[in-house]
Design a protein that fits this description.
The protein has 125 residues and is α/β, with parallel strands linked by helices. It contains five helices and five strands. It has a five-stranded parallel β-sheet with strand order 2-1-3-4-5, with helices on both faces. The chain is globular, with a radius of gyration of 13 Å.
């Protein structure tokens, strides 16, 4: 059985790119807003939650903070952003998010590595 991956990304073209790249390995549920994702989280529990940081309305980190107590302990939460900012990453870590992925040319490789639990992705050049 493939992992259930929830992708919350408001840029529909970018979301489609990620879905096409990951759906060979994973069962992808895609949402254009945190609010849409919240509705589905009431009935389906994901294995992986990929949240765009900068969403219209509720941000990815706000969504995480709202649902973190309801998520099973095995759920991997990944914040994704075009912003490569150490201070921002530190804030995510303080809030309990361990995985941060920058939207760059290696985003699919990085997402797959994080989902698969490979530890050396941050040292890849």
């Amino acid at each position: 059985m493939s992992l259930k991956v929830f992708l919350v990304e408001d840029d529909e073209a970018y979301a489609e790119f990620i879905k096409k790249s990951l759906r060979k390995k994973y069962q992808i549920y895609s949402f254009i807003s945190a609010e849409d994702c919240l509705v589905t989280l009431k009935s389906i529990s994901p294995d992986v939650l990929i949240l765009d940081y900068n969403l219209p309305g509720m941000s990815g980190i706000e969504l995480y903070e709202q649902v973190k107590d309801q998520l099973d302990s095995h759920v991997k939460v990944i914040i994704m952003s075009a912003i490569d900012d150490g201070e921002l990453v530190l804030e995510f870590i303080k809030k309990g998010v361990r995985d941060y992925v920058v939207k760059d040319e290696k985003v699919i490789k990085t997402l797959t590595s994080v989902i698969e639990g490979e530890d050396d992705i941050y040292f890849d050049d």
